[in-house]
Known about the structure:
Blueprint: E1 6-11, H1 15-26, E2 30-36, H2 40-49, E3 57-59, H3 62-67, E4 73-76, H4 83-92, E5 96-99, H5 107-119, E6 124-126, H6 134-143, E7 152-160, H7 165-170, H8 182-198, E8 206-209, E9 214-215, E10 221-229, E11 235-241, E12 247-254, E13 257-261, E14 272-279, E15 282-283, E16 290-291, E17 295-300, H9 305-323, H10 330-350, E18 355-357
Parallel strand pairs: 1-2, 1-4, 2-3, 4-5, 5-6, 7-11
Antiparallel strand pairs: 7-12, 8-10, 8-18, 9-10, 10-11, 12-13, 13-14, 14-17, 15-16
Amino acid sequence: xxxTPIRFGILGCAEIARKVSRAISLAPNAALYAVGSRSxxxxxxxxxxxxFPESAKIYxxxxxxxxxxxxxxxxxxxxxxxxxxxxxxxxxxxxxxxLEKPVALNxxxxxxxxxxxxxxxxxLMDSTMWMHNPRTAEMxxxxxxxxxxxxxxxxxxxxxxAADSDFLENDIRVKPDLDALGALGDAGWYCVRSILWxxxxxxxxxxxxxxxxxxxxxxxxxxxxxxxHWEDGKVATFHCSFFSNxxxxxxxxxxxxxxxxxxxxxxxxxxxGSFMTATESGFTEFVTGWVPLPSQHTVMTxxxxxxxMVSEFSRLVNSIKKDGSVGEKKWPSYSRKTQFVLDAVKTSxxxxxxxxxxx
Length: 359
């Protein structure tokens, strides 16, 4: 029997909400039900241009969405500085929450969101879309294989894009009162998540910001990097920036194998994703080439990764609604660990690159 579609309300009309609205429409167990903005006119225009059904509810406030008894879940793409307020209110209204990243300005704020969700029995998940791509599961199989990959030794992650002048002046991600973490909270979130994913979400012992952090005139991070260190000698590095050409690379290196990925946040193509693996690599006799050559693997996506995210979230919500299940704690745990590492990197940046312990 098909699942009853989870009715989504969207708080705000951010640009990313266009993509997630489409994902909700594509997910087989979800439905666009309502959208709210501080302006009724803006909400009406957003719904009309983003495929909302004629029956959708249009509200001129966020509170009205939360007060609608037919809204099962809300997607919150508001500026990070507003997450604590609106996610907490949503949880108190018994709305399940799909929350944009970064999930909060710091882990202390996010702990309050988690507490509100757990005490009100609602599911919480952040919107790190690539985690739900079937390619991600296939890559995990490779780096978990002791024969092909061996033991993890290092991870390097990069996410950069060259923002235009309008973005650098006006986007919420460059405003200290809206998204104070800047490039670290936006692009850096994905880098840290990929590193933790490769490490089975084992937290590092300490982190250390790399030299060269760049700020805008308001003091918001525009470009930065860090190294992460584990007790057993594993190390990871990442770089994120609003100033460099679009790059989304992850390299995961083990004692026997290597994983290479060039489009981990958003695949080059929506319907498929590829990655490369190499095992026991060496050189030809005269050191003129590699042997064996790395192999490329392509995974068909089916539903786009963002629709898969919505579908998985909706499945968990349905389980709670129908079976009285407890919310899946894996996803909030992943979010918290990612935020915890971001906090430590930010502290290291503020302390001119001092090592910051996570123990």
